[in-house]
């Protein structure tokens, strides 16, 4: 057996399991070995059947001598029942509501079962719903960890998917390791690096992570694989940066006087942090290689104003005047609501200038200024808008993913702004950047999701980082409270108090529609559709209420947001579709239903919707949970002074899992846990820098690293 061998060459895999493996992108022996346990469960001492006593948590081995489907006598519940025996006695095992297992557990098979022993009499002991695994033979002695089950202190538990169980994965990985295939896997990390950081070899790490004898071995393996993932992620980012910056870019020098006059058009003074950000970007734009910068700012810190200043610097620059047409700016947002909002914001900033601005999304094609309606945008045929963009006569183009479609061609794309950049993959970012036909465009990524320093070093190794760590003058701190069910009436009264001041409110629900009443969480998770009706009929009949969710059409969304922004409605009941960037300054209170169901990043973003003016903002976190873990997270949200502090708190609470969600960054759980360790991240980055220095600069080489599955 070799790491590159197909699993199907060595195992008979049932179609449901094969389908699950395909979805996990696991086809080869090596790929299965890189599917790591999510946790370890105590296996319990391995005992002979006659040594079991009531209350034991133990593991037994035996041959199945009876297997049948039955019905529990009290409630007529279908169940599977087997009897196993070893040299010392017999033991009964039952699985309620899993009658199908009687067919799976075949007569004569040898199984390992782990569970709690019930029954008072020695001849009536049993296990209810034990974990089980079919094994090739009874355990042997000899001290070899691959066969001596008694030596195993920890049982690996793997993430399960429909069609594949943790036990299936555990059993097949064990069979693979028994062949010694791990010794034939090429270690992608140099020996001197392993020695320098006291990391186990790949062969040992694979054995330690799947079959640890103790916590120390499991931890050593996790450390090694975390280092490996961060190390190669850094190499990838550094090579990306090197390749991008090797291209030529527009040399853009802004007119200081004109830029200063543009700044005076704002109705608010820029903060010191915003001014520093503008200077950083100005400095980068002067270079002949493209800028790669991340603008990281808390909710409401003014990233859009910085983007507007820098966009103006580009379209009014010396390079723009020398080009056959004005240089172009592409501004990509993750949602149509956000793209439309930024489009209208720029219209206000640029309305005194003769600079056309366009919006292109899946359903909208708008151009400003309109020839017929003064001061407003107008809808135009999509082919005509695409032609104007290709001819270079529209300098600033807003849009969603629609901007990276093949039909969208820019003539002089000099500057790309990507809002909420973590919503886009590197490939999507690259597609937009490659639309610079003449030169590579400068790139500014923006995010309102503050992340810990270690995660920033890991994920954004290709970007220079600028922080907006100040809020605009006059912004008030949000008063955040956790609301239990018996406090709901008081919260409704607090919302009514704000509405009487002619303010507006958000109510956020986890679901769009009412859940199936047969599902166990049906009474907990409120829906937008039902809650909007309930609030109108029973709580706020005197106020105008609208609803907004992702299943609405783009036209419906735009109209709903327009009415809310213009205060034609008082309360907006919505899903987290309003999480990012939605700017309604008159909204001062937000009630988040089922707050424990949202991630901390979402909660922080959602409450930021009401911190957009000089009025005191309020956030109420309604929860039905009594879970200690959930309450600890919600209390962190209440006490954190800002998003940066919250990110660090969440890192310590959850291991970077929620605020900066590993899935959205493409980082596995193992690496996310390790990101708490600044020394490990810095060490991996240092080694990656040294590695990249030694690579030929003329071409991008792929490393031989075996891919870790991130699903």
UniProtKB/TrEMBL annotation:
Helicase C-terminal domain boundaries: 501-652
Domain of life: Bacteria
Species this chain originates from: Candidatus Vogelbacteria bacterium CG10_big_fil_rev_8_21_14_0_10_45_14
Keywords per UniProt: ATP-binding, DNA damage, DNA repair, DNA-binding, Helicase, Hydrolase, Nucleotide-binding
Stated name of the protein: ATP-dependent DNA helicase RecG
Molecular function per GO: ATP binding; DNA binding; DNA helicase activity; hydrolase activity
All residue ranges annotated as the Helicase ATP-binding domain in the record: 284-468
PANTHER family per record: ATP-DEPENDENT DNA HELICASE HOMOLOG RECG, CHLOROPLASTIC
GO biological process: DNA repair
PROSITE patterns per record: HELICASE_ATP_BIND_1, HELICASE_CTER
High-level lineage: Bacteria, Candidatus Vogeliibacteriota
């Amino acid at each position: 057996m070799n790491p590159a061998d197909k699993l199907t060459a060595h195992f008979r895999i049932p179609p449901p399991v094969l389908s699950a493996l395909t979805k996990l992108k696991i086809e080869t022996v090596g790929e299965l070995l890189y599917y790591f346990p999510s946790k370890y469960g105590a296996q319990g001492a391995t005992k002979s059947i006659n040594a079991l006593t009531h209350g034991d948590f133990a593991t037994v081995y035996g041959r199945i001598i009876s297997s049948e489907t039955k019905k529990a006598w009290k409630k007529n519940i279908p169940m599977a029942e087997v009897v196993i025996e070893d040299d010392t006695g017999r033991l009964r095992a039952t699985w309620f509501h899993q009658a199908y297992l009687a067919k799976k557990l075949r007569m004569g098979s040898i199984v390992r079962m782990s569970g709690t022993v019930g029954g008072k009499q020695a001849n009536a002991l049993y296990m209810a719903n034990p974990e089980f695994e079919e094994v090739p033979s009874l355990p042997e002695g000899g001290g070899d960890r691959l066969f001596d089950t008694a030596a195993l202190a920890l049982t690996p538990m793997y993430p399960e998917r429909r069609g594949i169980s943790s036990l299936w994965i555990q059993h097949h990985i064990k069979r693979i390791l028994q062949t010694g295939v791990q010794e034939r896997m090429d270690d992608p990390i140099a020996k001197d690096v392993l020695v320098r950081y006291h990391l186990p070899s790949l062969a040992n790490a694979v054995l330690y992570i799947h079959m640890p004898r103790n916590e120390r071995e499991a931890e050593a393996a996790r450390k090694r694989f975390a280092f490996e993932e961060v190390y190669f992620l850094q190499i990838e980012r550094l090579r990306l940066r090197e390749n991008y910056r090797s291209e030529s870019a527009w040399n853009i020098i802004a007119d200081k006087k004109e830029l200063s006059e543009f700044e005076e058009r704002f109705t608010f003074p820029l903060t010191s942090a915003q001014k520093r950000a503008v200077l950083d970007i100005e400095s980068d734009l002067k270079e002949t290689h493209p800028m790669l910068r991340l603008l990281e700012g808390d909710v409401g810190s003014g990233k859009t104003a910085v983007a507007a200043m820098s966009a103006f610097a580009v379209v009014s620059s010396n390079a723009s005047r020398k080009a056959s047409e004005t240089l172009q700016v592409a501004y990509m947002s993750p949602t149509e609501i956000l793209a439309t909002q930024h489009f209208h914001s720029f219209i206000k900033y640029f309305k005194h200038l003769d600079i056309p601005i366009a919006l292109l999304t899946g359903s909208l094609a708008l151009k400003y200024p309109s020839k017929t309606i003064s001061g407003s945008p107008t809808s135009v045929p999509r082919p005509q808008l695409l032609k104007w963009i290709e001819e270079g006569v529209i300098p600033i183009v807003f849009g969603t993913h629609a901007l990276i479609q093949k039909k969208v061609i820019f003539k002089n794309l000099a500057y790309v702004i990507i809002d909420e950049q973590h919503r886009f993959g590197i490939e999507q970012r690259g597609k937009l950047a490659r639309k610079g036909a003449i030169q590579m465009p400068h790139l500014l990524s923006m995010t309102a999701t503050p992340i810990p320093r270690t995660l920033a070093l890991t994920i954004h190794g290709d970007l220079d980082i600028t922080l907006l760590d100040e809020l605009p003058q006059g912004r008030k701190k949000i008063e955040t409270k956790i609301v239990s069910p018996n406090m709901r009436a008081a919260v409704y009264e607090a919302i009514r108090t704000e509405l009487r001041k002619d303010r507006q409110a958000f109510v956020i629900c986890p679901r769009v529609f009412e859940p199936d009443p047969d599902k166990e969480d049906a009474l907990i998770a409120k829906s937008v559709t039902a809650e909007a009706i309930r609030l109108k009929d029973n709580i706020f009949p005197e106020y105008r209420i609208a609803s907004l969710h992702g299943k609405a059409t783009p036209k419906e969304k735009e109209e709903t947001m327009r009415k809310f922004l213009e205060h034609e409605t008082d309360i907006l009941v919505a899903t987290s579709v309003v999480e990012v960037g939605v700017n309604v300054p008159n909204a001062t209170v937000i009630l988040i239903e089922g707050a424990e169901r949202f991630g901390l990043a979402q909660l922080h973003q959602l409450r930021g919707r009401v911190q957009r003016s000089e009025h005191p903002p309020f956030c109420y976190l309604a929860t039905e949970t009594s879970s200690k873990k959930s309450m600890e997270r919600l209390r962190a949200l209440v006490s954190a002074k800002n998003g940066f502090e919250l990110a660090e708190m969440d890192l310590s609470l959850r291991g970077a899992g929620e605020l900066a969600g590993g899935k959205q960054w493409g980082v596995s759980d193992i690496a996310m846990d390790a990101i708490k360790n600044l020394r490990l991240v810095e060490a991996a980055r240092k080694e990656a820098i040294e590695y990249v220095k030694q690579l030929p600069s003329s071409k991008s080489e792929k490393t031989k690293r075996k891919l870790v599955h991130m699903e």
